[in-house]
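We now fix the convention by which a protein and its fold are recorded. The integers have meaning only within a learned vocabulary of local backbone shapes. A complete example follows; check for yourself that the lines match position by position.
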Amino acid sequence: MGLFNKNEQYQGYNIYSMKKYVDKKRIIFNVIVTILTIITLCFVIYYIVDTSLRVKRSKQFIAQVIEYQRQQELIERQKEEKKAKIPNLTDIGKQNMKNIYHSETKRAFLTFDDGPSKNTKDILDILNQNDIKATFFVLGSQVEYFPETTKRIYDEGHYIANHGYSHKYSSIYQAPEQVINEYNQCNQIVANTIGVPEYNSHLFRFPGGSVGGKYAQIKNQAITLLEQNNILYVDWNSLTGDSEKANPTEEYLINNLQQTTNDKNSIVILMHDSQSKKITADCLPRVISFLREKGYEFDNFYNVIK
């Protein structure tokens, strides 16, 4: 009986020890599993955060690359636009000028002399509303008075041509060389004003026209000098007569335009945007409507001198 009890006690003791051993291993196992789980979760969280940061940085980098490319494209586009607005006289341009009054299609060049002035802004507004690019034969002396208007003419895609500096016949027609001097003086002022040092219009209009008059011989000699300096000149074959009277009416201007246009295909229309010619701006919408009704397309000298 005693032996049995001893064996039973011994046997019970082993079962208890083993149970404690097993429980201890299970606890250790659970602790290890828990630690590993925590470590794994930490790695997972780190990976998720790191990946998110990498993705964010990658998106930022891509955005920066795209913005850089956009800026470069903008710079290149601005360079091309700037280049396109700097006249480049070629042999084709010289030939085009020789045929300026001849065209298979009906085209009209709106040209304005003696400006810019306080009236030029109204003219620019009207041209902008009608999506028309014109040509302005500016005076250097007027550009000095209206630099912002001059820059607006250029920025809005109109052609800035040259009408000399002074418009004083006694000054500009002293000698053929003086015509060139006034051209260069005006050209330099324009280039400085629009902020394009290399600008040269290559296009001159003689004050009073290139033919006839008291200074005809000087003008003929000046034409040769202009050609030698790669400068073309152009007069007109149509006009509104806005400089023929002190206070002409709109009907007077339109009547002159009708009479001088006739059935010509290519017309270079003389008008003025000087200080005293508000009537030119007032009548311009009617001039545009008349020409459109006659089937003319509007052009400027960017498409001639190229």
